[in-house]
Structures are given as C-alpha cells and as structure tokens.
Amino acid sequence: MTALNIRNEHSEQHSRPTMLSDVILGGQDGLVNVLGIILGVSAATSDVRLIFVAALAALGAETISMAAVAYTSTKSRFKHYLKEVETEKREMREVPKVERQEVVDVLVEWGYKGKKLKSMTDLICSNEKAWLEFMMSFELKLAPVEKSAPAKSFVTVLIATALGSVIPLIPFIFFSGNIATAAIASVILSAIVLFIVGYYEAKVTLGSLWRSGMEMLLIGLTAGFAGYLIGRVFGAVPT
To answer: Is residue 239 part of a domain?
Structure first.
C-alpha cells in the first residue's frame, strides 16, 4: 500500500467550528423567530394570509439582519486579529527578551524544564513565523481569522437563517384551511428539526447526543410558546 493510500485511508475528519456555529446560529434563530411569530399570529387570527405576510416579513428582516451581524462581528474579529499580529511583531523586534520569556512561561506550564525547556524555547524563537504563531495561539489565545471569513460567514448565516425560517411555514402550505392543525404540525416539525440540529451538533463536537438534542428542542419551543402566549393575550383584547 502506498503512502498516499495510507494517508487517504486514515485521513483525519475535522469539523469547521466557525461554519458549524454560523449554521446553527442562523438556522436556529430563523426557525425559532418565525415559529414564535406564526404561533402568535395564528393565536390572534384565523386569516392564513396574515400569518404568511407576518412570517415572510420576519423571514426577510431576520435573514438580512442575522447575516449582517455575522459579517460585522466576523470582520471585527479579523481586524482585531490583524492588530494583535502587528503588536506582537513590534514587541518581538523591540523587546525580544520579554517575548522570549513569555514563550518560556507557556512551556513551563506545559511541564518543560531544564535542557528541554531551553531547547524548545531556542527552537521556537529561532523561526519568526513559528514564534509569532506560538504567541498568537498560546499567549493571546487567538485563532487566526481568514480575510474571506466575513463574506463566508455572511453567506452561511444568510442561507441558514432563510432555510430555518421556512421550516415552520411548511405545514401552513398543506393545512391552510385549518389553522389549528397547521400550528400543531408546525410545532411538531420545528421540534423534530431542532432536535436533529442539537443531536448533530453534539455528534460533531462533544456532549450527550440526546441531551443536546433535547436542549435545542426546549430552547426553541420555549421561544415559540412565548409568541403563542403574546398572540393569545392580545388576540383576546377587544378592538
């Protein structure tokens, strides 16, 4: 068996935490937001057109809003990372002894001492790129942010929020003549999707699969129930 085949056969499978968090953030927010609005409006009126108008308006506003927030927050992290890189480079030039000692401090925490500590410190500090990345990762605890990350985050959250927002609306397409049935079906479908998302999150990260699924489900349904109560209360108020 060739080295390439061995590498392919034993290739490591890593998840992308930023993309995963963007998908969950957008999808969950879109689903929960529209579910709450649908239940609230359906509790106040039996006009399916009003339900669709309210839900679609929320879908549009929430999708753009969430994507914009994802873009600006990721861009802010990118700019902060660049600023810290420049600061570290300057300190490595101006106060190399201080920066070297910071490497030593990290290695000591890892259990290095004596000749091994000096050898590791010399090895890291002899390469400017290695030294810089070591300081960024282990002194400042900052993960690198790609230049394209803000745009990728914008697109990911945009799509995830739009897809999540559509899910609670699906039953109203098939049960448009019966609002109560559509609302119940919407809750059931949303609960299933929320559970699957939480289950998948735990599968690619850490944690109990069932606990994570139930946690995601309960958070989403609690928000939806709040929307239902608001619609019920204000829908009962005479005009």
So the answer is: no
Q: Which of 223, 163, 222 is nearest to 193 (CA)?
A: 163
Please return the burial class of 113, using the count of CB atoms within 10 Å of its CB with bins 0-12, 13-18 and 19+.
Answer: exposed
The predicted-structure confidence for 3-48, as pLDDT tens digits, reads as follows 444 444 444 444 455 677 777 777 777 888 888 888 878 777 777 8
Number of domains in the chain: 1
Is residue 165 a part of any domain in this protein?
Answer: yes
How far is residue 69's CA from residue 133's CA, in Å, rounded to a whole number? 28
Longest Cα–Cα distance in the chain: 83
Domain hosting residue 142, numbered range: 18-231
Tell me if 138 is assigned to some domain. Answer: yes
Greater model confidence, 180 or 104: 104
pTM (2 d.p.): 0.75
Token digits of residue 87: 């600061």
In a domain, residue 5? The reply is no
Residues with Cβ within 8 Å of residue 21, at least 6 apart in sequence: none
Rounded CA-CA distance 27/19 in Å is: 12
